[in-house]
Prior knowledge:
291 residues; PH-like_dom_sf; Homer protein homolog 1 isoform X4; G protein-coupled glutamate receptor binding; coiled coil
Amino acid sequence: MTFTKTSQKFGQWADSRANTVYGLGFSSEHHLSKFAEKFQEFKEAARLAKEKSQEKMELTSTPSQESAGGDIQSPLTPESINGTDDERTTPEVTQNSEPRAEPTQNALPFAHSSAISKHWEAELATLKGNNAKLTAALLESTANVKQWKQQLAAYQEEAERLHKRVTELECVSSQANAVHTHKTELNQTIQELEATLKKKEEEIEKLRQEIDNARELQAQRDSLTQKLQEVEIRNKDLEGQLSDLEQRLEKSQNEQEAFRNNLKTLLEILDGKIFELTELRDNLAKLIECS
């Protein structure tokens, strides 16, 4: 199997053995690239597992010795080993052959490959179902539009033919009453056709409006997505500014704390100086009194 990218969001899954090609749609180019990488990774893992299995089978496929009854054991030969399947055929042995243990070293890779294969098969089935529904709806809408256009053209041709017929009857017929009656019937038929034509035109216009509404919703979704991205960017900027302000606030608090400590130390020094000056004044006063 091969997987090929056809555009930014679409790819083709081709199976050459089944002569089948599946178209896969993805929501973004990142998902498409991731799927392609995983596809190639699992394909390479399956190829390596297949080569290891073939090597093991080649080593164990040598002819065995004859048994006591003279019968010869049949060699072990793999009938089918697929790249992503875990199906392996067990060798047939004769009634008199000795039992031989099969290699179990590759059981874990094959089981892992089988689980991954089943997972991707389920994903593929889901994508196929969605694509089938979308394709069916698109084909149905296209078929309805084409059918209505054909009916519109047929009604227009019928109306023109009836008008011509009325004109011919008016010119050719000599019986005025019969012509008038026929003309009335034709006019009624024309009116009915025109009413049907108008109804079909209204349905076509309704479909066009629905398509325009879908496009507008898509544009609104894209606009909202862009606005959301802008808001996320703005939030990141605000978070950066908030972090910067918190750092500045912490720095300012640290500076205030240091200033308070310095001021406290200075006050303690001033208290000591004032106490010394007070003692000096008392000593001077005592000296003056003594003298």
